[in-house]
Amino acid sequence: MALTPRALVAQRPLGLRVLAGRAGLDREITWVHPTELGDPSPYLDGGELLLTTGLTFGSGQAGDYVARLVGADVTGLGFGVGLSHAEVPAELVGAAERAGLPLLEVPVPTPFIAITKAVSAALAAEQYESLVRTGRGQQELTRTALRRSGPGALVRRLAQLVDGWVLLLDGAGSVREAAPASARSFARPLRAELDRVRTGSRLATVAGEEVVIQALGTRTRGFLAVGGPARLDAAGQHIVTTATALLSLAQERDRARGAMFRGLRAGLLRLLLDGSTELALGTARTVFGEAPALPGPVVVLVGTARARAAALEILESEHERAFFAEHGDTVVVLGEEPAVLELPERIAGLHAGVSSSTVDVELARRQAEQAAEAARSAGRSSVRSADHAAEGLLALIDPAAARAFARELLGPLREHDATGRSELLESLRCWLEHNGHWDAAAARLGVHRHTLRNRMAKVAELSGRDLGSPGVRAELWLALQV
């Protein structure tokens, strides 16, 4: 707790009395300094409590004297009576009141050395308390980091230790962790300050809060922002510095670990593409504890190097159970997850393609990559391979003729669905998307495979077509696209 004129006056043995400047009694006293100079301002650092008996103080000097003290950022003035002045001059009291400078009367029985000792003892106690608090805070943060419970635990503990809010931001300024959750509201106004912090730290005022912004790591891979209504004290600053070092080390450790696993996943993907499925799946189970679910669709992400790096970072932090790997200038994800297909919406310059094949991994990858390139060319977030292929064919067909063909072929199915007895069109589309694989299509629809078989039998009956014929399947798929 910082020593203030109010706290000093509260020490009754000193007998101090407040004569002026009560509004400034809660300012911090950094030191105490006796002086009889008419202008001591050149020798002050700011924050001092000055003690004087007014030996050189003459009539008409009060206004200039107080103005110089205020200009030097003095915390207060103690005036000793009984030596050169029987009482504190009225003009000094008036000038101090107008300037808001705390003015304390020091009675005859109180020597200046007693005030000096009181201030020194309080400052020593404050420094000891700060050291103890710093040491305890550093120990608690270190123990939290050693538990490897993630950066979130460290951020929450730091917020408790400094009695403020904390944000852990990535290099782009997006929130990775927040404590408390309401601190996320400061992320947007903070972004303007992040561009000014490449290394080291910066003090800023954001939305009325005093904020310390620390760059993490040597390549600015993220930022730590700590804020509150008041500026951090010395102990709080040391604790934040410790948290910054721990988070930077953890970030570098995670980066090295992530690079190792990226290389391993890329190698496993090459084995899968080369047909060494059992070896790849066995290695994946040994290293990751689980293997990618095959067969299944493949998603390919294309875009700028920065967009792909951002996608990998999100996949590593939010989709640990998904199997993904870099392949050339693309990111390949085995399995189609809604969250993965949302990545292009979150990351500028990223596009996704989804395969139609679910059996051959290399074929599915090629299909997905072609669809992703089509999405990039068209400026779309994602494209499905089947849709891409159908769109290419539809461009060669007269639209009116295509619509008439689709109405004739699918009309009986649409009429059947209108009765509400089943969903033939949706089931047919899903079954064709999965290349006729009953189990995979049934799982996607959430029905039993026998139910799906019955629906496809009804499709064949109503359409009068043999679904086992590749040509018929192509016609049905084309009609569905129209």
UniProtKB/TrEMBL annotation:
Domain of life: Bacteria
Residue ranges occupied by any PucR C-terminal helix-turn-helix domain in the UniProt entry: 424-481
InterPro entries (alphabetical): CdaR-like_regulators (IPR051448), PucR_C-HTH_dom (IPR025736), PucR_C-HTH_sf (IPR042070), PucR_dom (IPR012914)
Span of domain Purine catabolism PurC-like: 13-123
UniProt protein name: PucR family transcriptional regulator
